[in-house]
Every structure is written in C-alpha cells, then in structure tokens.
C-alpha cells in the first residue's frame, strides 16, 4: 500500500501553520516568510523553484530533500492554492507558483467550489474536488499509480487528514517564533503521538524537525 506523507510542514512554537490575514501580497498572512526561512536556504528549495545550483546541503536540506521522492500526487486545501474565499468570481487564478508549478504530478485541491481542472507545464494538473479526506485520498491514490500521496497543507487539511487517521508519515518543522494567531495544526488531535513513533533533531538554523511514523495498522478503513 502506498504511503500518505506530509513533508516540511512548518509551524511556530505556538503551533500555527499559517498567520492571520492571508492576501495576494501575503500568502502566509502576518507570518510573512518567517515560517519558511530555514527552507529558503536549502538546495532543495532552490531546485524546487528553478533557482539553479547553490543552497545549503546540511541537515535541513537532508530532511527537506525527501519531499518529492516517490510522490505520485498531492492533496492540498483551497487556501494553500490561493487567497480567494467563497465561490470563484473568475477562474483566471492558477495558483501562486507560475506556469510551471513545482509539484509535477496531479494535485487535488479540496474545495466546496469545484471548477474545471487546470493543466500546467511540467506535469502538474490541478483537479478541484469537493470530497471527504478518504474519498480525496482514493482519487489521489489512483492518480498516483502506486506511488505515495503527499498531503501538502495548509494546516486545516493536514489536521483533517490526521484526525481521519489517514497519514503514515508526518514531518513537522518547529520554527522558534511565536505567531500568536493564525491557523493551528494540533487542535483537536489530543493523544496523536500514541499512534506514531516520533523522532526529533534540532539543526543549527534553530529549527526542530519532528517526524511521526505510523506504528501500526490504521484505525479507520482505508480505500
Ligand atoms: N506551514 C506550512 O508549511 C504550510 C504549508 C502549506 C500551506 N501553508 C499555508 O497555509 C494556509 C492555508 O491553510 P488553511 O488551514 O487556511 O487552509 P487549507 O487547509 O489550505 O484549505 C482549507 C480550505 O479547503 C477547503 N476544504 C478543506 N477540506 C475540504 C473538504 N473535505 N471538502 C471540500 N473543501 C474542503 C475549504 O475551502 P472552501 O470551502 O473555501 O472551498 C477550506 O476552507 C496558507 O496561508 C498557506 O500558505 C502553510
């Protein structure tokens, strides 16, 4: 069975995966870029965004670099895809990532406001689906053709997949900042650690990387 994985998911010390007040200018709201500064310096990030060579190859990069290995599809929330809310007023928006997004696989965007699929350069196709986490995962699994499925965020979607017990591997990067407001990752997930083996490493950038690896069989039926 293919794995369901979360990678490089950055949260503040107080558990926020994004700030408040997302807008076109500020995709992470008042958090700005602070949640991901550790990531910007890595070779993985530079390659992901076509910035050529360079970038750090230390422990942050070693952890960040596995995000695309054996991934055949991603599932993301509508707020990761864009800052719009409610029904689409136009369908010109194609995501934050330009005409060649870094995913290079089918991407299932969860939304209560579906729209036609978008085929981008480089193998990324955005499919907009109104579905439960389990049903979205079944679609992504089929599209992934035996490879793993990444849950790409934001915090609401990762939280929902954790609550539904659908995640096998979770990599969280705890950044030493206090955001105070935004969208929290851990709410409602009391006792989550009991389902996983956890490991942690702190890197010179000041980030603590935590990995949660599923211990046993899933508690809920899987497609
Ligand atoms: N910290 C990180 O590493 C990281 C990673 C990725 C993204 N982010 C950030 O996280 C923020 C977005 O996170 P978020 O928690 O606000 O939102 P999100 O998880 O991206 O999306 C939530 C939205 O997706 C739609 N949705 C979710 N589940 C659904 C379902 N089962 N069926 C139908 N629609 C569903 C709903 O939108 P509608 O009802 O409007 O359709 C819901 O409001 C952005 O600022 C992004 O930049 C952070």
UniProtKB/TrEMBL annotation:
<protein>
    <submittedName>
        <fullName>Dihydrofolate reductase</fullName>
    </submittedName>
</protein>
<feature type="domain" description="Bacterial bifunctional deaminase-reductase C-terminal">
    <location>
        <begin position="8"/>
        <end position="193"/>
    </location>
</feature>
<dbReference type="Pfam" id="PF01872">
    <property type="entry name" value="RibD_C"/>
</dbReference>
<dbReference type="InterPro" id="IPR002734">
    <property type="entry name" value="RibDG_C"/>
</dbReference>
<dbReference type="InterPro" id="IPR024072">
    <property type="entry name" value="DHFR-like_dom_sf"/>
</dbReference>
<dbReference type="GO" id="GO:0008703">
    <property type="term" value="F:5-amino-6-(5-phosphoribosylamino)uracil reductase activity"/>
</dbReference>
<dbReference type="InterPro" id="IPR050765">
    <property type="entry name" value="Riboflavin_Biosynth_HTPR"/>
</dbReference>
<dbReference type="GO" id="GO:0009231">
    <property type="term" value="P:riboflavin biosynthetic process"/>
</dbReference>
């Amino acid at each position: 069975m293919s794995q369901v994985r979360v990678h490089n998911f950055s949260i503040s010390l107080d558990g926020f995966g994004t700030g408040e007040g997302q807008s076109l200018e500020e995709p992470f709201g008042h958090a700005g870029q602070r949640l991901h500064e550790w990531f910007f310096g890595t070779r993985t990030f530079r390659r992901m965004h076509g910035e050529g060579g360079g970038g750090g190859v230390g422990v942050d990069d070693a952890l960040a670099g596995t995000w695309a290995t054996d991934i055949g599809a991603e599932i993301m929330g509508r707020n990761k895809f864009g800052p719009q809310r409610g029904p689409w007023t136009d369908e010109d928006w194609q995501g934050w990532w330009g005409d060649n997004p870094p995913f290079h696989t089918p991407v299932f965007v969860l939304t209560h406001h579906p729209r036609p699929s978008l085929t981008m350069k480089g193998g990324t196709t955005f499919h907009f689906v109104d579905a439960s986490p389990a049903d979205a995962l079944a679609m992504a699994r089929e599209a992934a053709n035996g490879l793993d499925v990444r849950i790409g965020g934001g915090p609401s979607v990762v939280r929902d997949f954790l609550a539904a017990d659908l995640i096998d591997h979770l990599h969280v990067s705890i950044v030493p900042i206090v955001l105070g407001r935004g969208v929290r990752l851990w709410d409602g997930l009391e006792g989550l650690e009991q389902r996983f083996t956890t490991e942690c490493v702190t890197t010179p950038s000041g980030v603590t990387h935590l990995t949660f690896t599923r211990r046993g069989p899933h508690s809920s039926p899987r497609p």
